[in-house]
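Reviewers of the previous submission asked for a worked example of the structure-prediction workflow described in the proposal, so we include one complete record here. The input consisted solely of the amino acid sequence. No template or homolog information was supplied to the procedure at any stage.
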Amino acid sequence: MYILVAAATAFEIQPLVKFLESPDSPAPGHEVGTLITGIGTLAATWSLSRQIDRRRPDLIIQAGIAGCLTDILPGEVLAVAEDHPADLGVWEGGRFSTVFDLGLADADTPPFSKGRLVNPYRHLLGLTSLTTVGAITVNEITTSAERIRWYQQNTRAIVESMEGAALHFVCLQAGVPFLQLRSVSNTVGVRDKTKWEMGLAIGRLNQALLDFLSQPALAETVNLQT
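From that input alone, the workflow returned the following structure tokens.
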């Protein structure tokens, strides 16, 4: 199989790249390419779409760090079962209304399902042996306590990223099997990078990637859906 591992920034998958480039490392059993998409939904959508047009992967894995909306500790790696763009709409009167709430779009128009971008490859999610969670994608990192409470009370999201929904949208539209893996680096809130566990999160993320790529049943699992 040809597997594409995508990340917003190079440092998030640098340990994997180093492993793949080392002549002393055992082969993962599949051809593995990497793609640095850039930060944010616009960059990720363009990069992923262009790469699929150039050479269609059998599987795309988006890997990266994420902020957490709950009390999950830094370093835990999670598999995202559903995602959605959380800042596409309007914030007014102390609440957020999505484009679906506003009647500007149908929440069940494919690839959306009730306003969510759901990964249908449940067997792949299961093969990771990771906890599966919901996620939100934003183009502006959330720091507002009011907005955080809103997400916690009105979404099923556990983690927040800036590219996840782009992966789900592009792959669902193109019919490419996919996974989104996120390693918690910090709690969503005021940006205090002294409290972020970047090294721990990246180390565990890349170990999870290597563990997954070495799964004997990976090839036969890729095209299975529930």
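The chain has a mean pLDDT of 92. We consider this example representative of the routine output the project will generate in years two and three.
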